[in-house]
Design a protein that fits this description.
It is a single chain. By secondary structure, the protein is α+β, with helices and mostly antiparallel strands. The protein has a domain of 102 residues. The chain is 16% helix and 31% strand. Strands 1-4-5-6-7-10-11-12 form an eight-stranded antiparallel beta barrel. A two-stranded antiparallel sheet has the order 2-3. It is found in: Endoplasmic reticulum membrane. Required for normal levels of the cell wall 1,6-beta-glucan. Involved in a protein folding machinery chaperoning proteins acting in various physiological processes including cell wall synthesis and lysis of autophagic bodies.
Length: 240
């Protein structure tokens, strides 16, 4: 039998452990979740599978959507700073969808439809045009939890990567979720080969089937973002 003090200690540990079971969460996983910028959302406002357009949000961020019957959609818009050359800041947009599974130990696995995923890469110091390719990446999250964020007064989804490190929190934006149809949207007999650094320039002249010409991400915006990120890095360096 546990002593009262030992019981209290065990209870406190349980309270701080990540929630890995839906019964422990304050709400369902179903819905559209978006990061703090609240400008990136899954659905047709991010990607149009008919015209093959990826629509640039105002700010960077991440969004996930989940259905009750095991489907997911993901939209990512991020910047990669280049402190040495601020004008060389990269911008990446990624979209994919497919099925998700929650294992008995709480592991969340996202398995995309391989032929549907898309990526748009802007690297102004290497390529004149943005590079538009197929994209798919199975994602594994070791655990997850849904809590009530008292500061924002919103439901917050915390995802922990396969190694246990936390992702940026996501906040419930829509329920039911804002998503494109869950079936294969651009079927093809075979997926295009994965692009490598050596082949990306070639892709601008010879794109995989069903992919249109590369689009432009706002270059001026990314130049100023690069300057800002570099300035923040220098400020942090001199303040240490």
């Amino acid at each position: 039998m546990l002593l009262p003090s030992a019981f209290s200690f065990a209870l406190s540990l349980a309270c701080f452990a990540p929630f890995t079971n839906a019964l422990n969460n304050v709400t369902s996983l179903t819905g559209t979740w978006s990061s703090k910028s609240n400008t990136v959302f899954t659905g047709p406002d991010f990607y149009d599978p008919v015209t093959e357009d990826m629509k640039e949000p105002r700010l960077t961020g991440t969004s996930f959507s989940f259905t009750d019957d095991g489907y997911f959609e993901e939209a990512i818009y991020l910047a990669i700073a280049n402190p040495t050359h601020p004008s060389c800041t990269q911008a990446i947009m990624q979209w994919q969808h497919g099925k998700y599974d929650i294992a008995s130990d709480g592991t969340l696995t996202l398995t995309p439809i391989k032929v549907d995923g898309r990526q748009l890469l802007s690297d102004p110091c290497k390529y004149t045009n943005s590079i538009y390719t197929r994209y798919n990446a199975t994602e594994i999250y070791k655990s997850w939890e849904i809590v009530l964020d008292e500061y924002r007064g919103m439901h917050r989804l915390n995802l922990f990567k396969f190694d246990g490190s936390p992702m940026n929190p996501l906040y419930l934006a829509y329920r039911p979720p804002q998503m494109l149809p869950t079936q294969t949207l651009n079927p093809t007999s075979s997926a295009a080969p994965k692009a490598t650094a050596a082949s990306k320039m070639k892709l601008k002249r010879s794109l995989p089937p069903n992919l249109k010409s590369a689009e432009h991400i706002n270059a001026d915006r990314w130049w100023w973002i690069g300057v800002a990120l570099t300035s923040m890095g220098l400020l942090g360096y001199f303040c240490v």
